[in-house]
Amino acid sequence: MSRSLAKGPFVDAKLLKKVMNKKPASAGVINTWARRSQVSPEMVGFTFGVHNGKSHVEVLVSEEMVGHRLGEFSPTKKFLRHGGKMQKEMEAKKQEAEIASAKAAKEAPAAAKK
Asked: Which of 23, 24, 34, 103 is surrounded by the most beta carbons within 10 Å?
């Protein structure tokens, strides 16, 4: 999704208009559906509600975000986890090991008191 350098960065005109005459402290959350819009230096300090298809995710713009797209900071898919049966077995073993170490830690002070 590259853009020609001659064209310059794409910033949604409506979004830029909302930002231009306001101060970051008094603006509150600016809701937007313009995920393709790039973050410009004028947007630093503002909080945007970037739509992810279901709801608006609040994004506080910092200087490191300039040049990136707003949509990069509002994920559209919820990550659950990888794996299936093997992953469950590994997690069960890990949990058993934690329980065993907790029991050993409880028994160690009791043995030291004797």
From this structure: 34
Q: What does pLDDT average to in each consecutive run of 10 residues of the chain (114 residues)?
A: 76 91 87 93 92 94 93 89 82 92 81 63
CB 45 within 8 A of CB 28: no
Q: Which residues of 46-62 are buried (b: 16+ CB within 10 A; e: fewer)?
A: bebbbbbeeebeebebe
Contact between 47 and 30 (Cβ < 8 Å): yes
Placement of tokens 């409506």 in the chain: 14
69 in Cβ contact with 32 (< 8 Å):
no
